[in-house]
Amino acid sequence: MSATATVTKDSTTPGKAPKRGSRMSVATVLLIIAGALVALSVLRALVGGGQESAFENITSSGQIGAALSMAVPIGLAGLGGLWAERAGVVNIGLEGMMILGTFFGAWAGYQTNPWVGVLAGVLGGAVGGLVHAIATVTFGVDHIISGVAINILALGATTYLAKRWFEPLSDIGGSPKQSPQVDDIQSFTVPGLSDGLATVENHHWFLVSDLAGLLGGLVTDISALTIVAILLFAGTFFVLWKTSFGLRLRSCGENPTAAESLGVNVYLYKYAAVVISGGLAGLGGVFLALVRSHIYNEGQTGGRGYIGLAAMLFGNWRPGGLAMGAGLFGYSDALQLRNGGATVHALLLLVALGLALLAAWRLSRKKYVAGAVCGGAAVLLVLWYALTETVANDLVPATPYIVTLLVMGLAAQRLRMPKANNKPYRKGQGT
Fold first, then answer.
1. pLDDT above 90 coverage of the chain, percent
2. Per-residue buried b or exposed e for 107-135, using 16+ beta carbons within 10 Å of the residue's own CB
């Protein structure tokens, strides 16, 4: 009998099939993406005038490339949260571990080379994960309290070290709040394909140019760390769902008592998961420091550790859904950075269309309250779009955070966390 079999048996009522979190197939995901592209092309064709250029920016290769760049650190933070929570440990400290990654990545990258900086940032985040594991697994400290403490300690430690290590380097760009510049990590462009897609995109053909812009952003000037992040997502799925190691680790997050009774060293697996979680968050911080800006800047994580947790929840604790959530949040973040209020204003109409479709789906399933709420929100967005010409500059920077709140509000009804998540466990309970 496997650990998962025991967990399933213990956690369900006899004679009833166990409840599972909703899971989208690859075909469903592709259908959603195709539907979004068609909707966007229709809107771009219908709107015309001054707003047409704003809609074209939404699917431009530059916008998609920027969205991918913004999504990677969010996705890596969320992936770290997934590893920890699948083992039953809530990791609110992802933000602090990202901060450690930004600082030590830039510090080592400046002194040696960027790839040594990557290793140092991962190790810095892993040390933060180790501290969290010691506090929560060994000493039984509340997971939320430990995570918040790590966030505070990481910020304080890096602020102090930046003053000691970077301030004396003011003649080459260092200061108490930033490091000297670090060399670039190489990026890649698929020759021929990138230029061909750019040509198609510039024709502004219905749907075809939108698809070319989407694909062009994925094959033009892609950082090597982006490729590493994609491989880590694929590797996480394989390790956690296709290997005996992953089966035992997930059993620790579902029913650690049952797992221990079958000989699983629960403490060891929890430690491994949380340390890996910290390392992944640290890698997300390295991406911000070495790819996005090429320097360490105080406060440059900007809450992305928390947004990574939101992306993990949106993805229902699975890598595929997490990747979609990170892409959505990264897209909204890049949108407000690249094009400002005009493009965010154009996006209101697309969001209204999505909410209208969601309202129709809710009503078809006889969920009248949810359907009415979504329909009302769609009407309000259409009115906002019709009565204004742009979005106020003060509101534009809040776009990714508003998207986070909206998505979590819509996704909350289908979430199914690991059953032993954030629950105390002491060694010997299963014997």
1. 48
2. bbbbeeebbebbbbbbbbbbbbbebbbeb
Residue 12, both tokens: 């369900």
Type of residue at 330: G
Q: Which two tokens stand for residue 331?
A: 């897209």
What is the Cα 204 distance to its own chain's centre? 31
pLDDT exceeds cutoff 90 at 83? yes
**In 3D, which of 346, 348, 307 has the Cα closest to residue 325?**
307
Taking the C-alpha atoms of 67, 73, 79 and 84 in order, what is their torsion angle to the nearest 10 degrees?
-150
For 386-396, what is each residue's pLDDT tens digit? Answer: 888 888 777 77
Query: End-to-end distance of the chain based on CA atoms, in angstroms?
Result: 16
Please determine, for residue 429, whether its predicted confidence score (pLDDT) is greater than 70: no
Q: Are 247 and 86 in contact (CB under 8 A)?
A: no
pLDDT digits (tens, 9 = 90+) for 281-320: 999 999 999 998 899 999 999 899 999 998 998 888 999 8
> For 424, which DSSP code?
-
The alpha-helical segments, DSSP class H, found in 112-223 are 114-133, 143-165, 193-202, 208-219
What is the spatial distance between Cα 388 and Cα 287, in angstroms, rounded to a whole number?
A: 37
Nearest CA among 24, 406, 104 for reference residue 285: 104
Residue 374 region, left (φ>0) first, then alpha (ψ -120 to 50), else beta?
alpha
Cα gap 186→283, rounded to integer Å: 16
* pLDDT score for 370: 80
Integer Cα distance of 83 and 90 in angstroms? 10
Structure token pair of residue 158: 């890096």
333-373 pLDDT, tens per residue? 887 776 667 777 777 877 787 788 878 888 888 888 888 98
Q: Single out the residue of 149, 102, 92, 158 nearest to residue 125, CA to CA.
A: 102
Residue pair 114/185 in contact (Cβ under 8 Å)? The answer is yes
pTM for the complete prediction? 0.87
Structural contact between residues 3 and 251, judged by C-beta atoms closer than 8 angstroms = yes
Average pLDDT of 2-10? 42
Q: How far apart are CA 415 and CA 392, in angstroms?
A: 34
Q: Which helix (H) or strand (E) holds 266?
A: helix 266-287
